[in-house]
């Protein structure tokens, strides 16, 4: 299979736009090739796109950057959870939002469009575009591939003939983290092992939206309340959580499990937290759930690593909501795309070529 390498940098210069031949001046992982659609691109630089139909794969800031309450350029297609967050947090009017159900194809400007669960953060979707008489496009947004995606009808229907716009966040062989369930089991074992001291506070790092599965499952299995801030609770309320999770949430910080921003799970910030709770807690155990926390070039990465400084303990756990390198290869092998357009981490040269080549089956 031949793969088209399209390069991405955070600052994508006009000269590079011309090299790619984009009349809109936008890269092809945002301006869909041959289609009048923009995906995860808003604000500055979109003026020449003449776009009426916009798409947002999920509510992470690097994808909705530039989107504000003043948006009037068209309508935005997204999932219900994403639409609620866009309205709640960015104040985009509801009349500018079009909610799309997963696995329910619809026509947008004559193009068949299907959203598929991306196994990323809540509300995240992959998008399958099927224009009449042209090759389909699969835009993964951010996703964590799993074998169950091979049962998705919209993906099966375009195997062997689609352009794949791929989340290549971890497209390097050293990123080989274990399945999420294994990491969850490790975290549960760690919490149980550290809970002998009743004056221990447990911190679980998370994003505005993302990584909820870890602290919610720990709370459910251990039947413990988990503290969330008022703003985090407002976000979680948009998710429609089942009762077994909903009843475990509290804004009372006397709970021993706390969901906090990921940056607060560090020795420096945990020391400040311990000082704040002086007299209530003597030890803090924090969990950093991110694929960047570790990597392994051979075999599986360990499920987690423990660091301790005095009464502060940090577990770095490879709980990722992006695909590992091996999972990226599995996805490419399943979809057999005619072209691959990486959306992350291309340098415009040999590094990018090597990255895409690493996804091809051995010859």
TrEMBL record:
Region (Disordered): 343-363
Short name of any one Pfam family annotated for the protein: DRMBL
Cell compartment(s), UniProt: Nucleus
Keyword DNA repair belongs to the record: yes
Keyword hit for Hydrolase: no
One of the GO BP terms on file: interstrand cross-link repair
One term of GO molecular function: 5'-3' DNA exonuclease activity
Keywords for this protein: DNA damage, DNA repair, Nucleus
DNA repair metallo-beta-lactamase domain sequence ranges: 244-347
Gene Ontology CC annotations of this record: nucleus
Family as reported in the entry's similarity comment: Belongs to the DNA repair metallo-beta-lactamase (DRMBL) family.
Protein name, entry field: DRMBL-domain-containing protein
Native source species: Coccomyxa subellipsoidea (strain C-169)
């Amino acid at each position: 299979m031949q793969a088209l390498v399209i390069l991405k940098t955070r600052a994508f210069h006009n000269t590079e736009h011309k090299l790619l031949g984009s009349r809109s001046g936008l890269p092809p992982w945002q301006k869909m090739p041959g289609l009048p659609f923009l995906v995860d691109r808003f604000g500055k630089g979109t003026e020449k796109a003449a776009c009426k139909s916009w798409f947002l794969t999920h509510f992470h800031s690097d994808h909705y950057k530039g989107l504000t309450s003043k948006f009037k350029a068209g309508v935005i297609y997204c999932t219900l959870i994403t639409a609620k967050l866009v309205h709640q947090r960015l104040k985009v009017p509801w009349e500018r939002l079009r909610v799309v159900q997963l696995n329910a194809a619809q026509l947008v400007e004559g193009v068949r469009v299907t959203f598929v669960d991306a196994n990323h953060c809540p509300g995240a979707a992959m998008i399958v575009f099927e224009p009449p008489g042209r090759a389909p496009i699969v835009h993964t947004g951010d996703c964590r591939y799993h074998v169950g995606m091979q049962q998705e009808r919209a993906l099966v229907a375009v195997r062997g003939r689609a352009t794949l716009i791929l989340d290549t966040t971890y497209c390097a062989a050293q990123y080989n983290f274990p399945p999420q369930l294994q990491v969850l089991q490790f975290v549960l074992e760690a919490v149980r092992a550290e809970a002998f001291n009743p004056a221990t506070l447990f911190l679980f790092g998370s994003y505005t939206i993302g990584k909820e599965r870890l602290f919610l499952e720990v709370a459910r299995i251990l039947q413990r309340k988990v503290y969330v801030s008022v703003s985090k609770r407002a976000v979680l309320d948009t998710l429609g959580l089942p009762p077994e999770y909903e009843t475990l949430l509290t804004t009372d910080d006397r709970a021993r499990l706390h969901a906090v921003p990921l940056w607060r799970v560090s020795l420096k910030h945990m020391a400040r937290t311990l000082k704040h709770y002086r007299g209530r807690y003597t030890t803090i155990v924090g969990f950093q759930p991110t694929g960047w926390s570790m990597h392994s070039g051979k075999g599986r990465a360990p499920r987690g690593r423990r660091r301790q400084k005095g009464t502060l303990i940090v577990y770095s756990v490879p709980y990722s909501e992006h695909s590992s390198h091996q999972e990226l290869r599995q996805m490419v092998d399943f979809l057999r795309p005619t072209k691959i357009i990486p959306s992350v981490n291309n340098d415009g040269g040999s590094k990018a070529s090597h990255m895409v080549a690493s996804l091809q089956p051995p010859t």
